[in-house]
Design a protein that fits this description.
The chain has 4 helices and no strands. It is mainly α.
């Protein structure tokens, strides 16, 4: 079961992927400092999973494949030009 789809366009910017992983590890640090190891392990595990999915298995799409297909009207206009 895949919880994070690394090919989703929302994960294309690097800062988004870094922010997601940093928030997970940051929350794990907060939980450790407040003395709740259960939630620290859960959020740390989420950070590890997010790092794996968003950095290790992430394959950026080329610019050609990331453009949406043209509608019929747009194709007709393009052919007319």
């Amino acid at each position: 079961m895949q919880l994070i789809d690394p090919q989703h366009p929302a994960y294309r910017p690097l800062w988004v992927r870094i922010l997601i992983v940093a928030v997970c590890f940051g929350w794990a640090l907060v939980e450790i400092t407040t003395g709740d190891p259960f939630w620290a392990v859960l959020s740390g595990g989420a950070g590890v999973y997010a790092a794996y999915m968003l950095f290790w298995t992430y394959k950026p799409q080329s610019a050609e494949s990331s453009t949406p297909p043209l509608s019929d009207d747009e194709e007709d206009k393009k052919d007319a030009d």
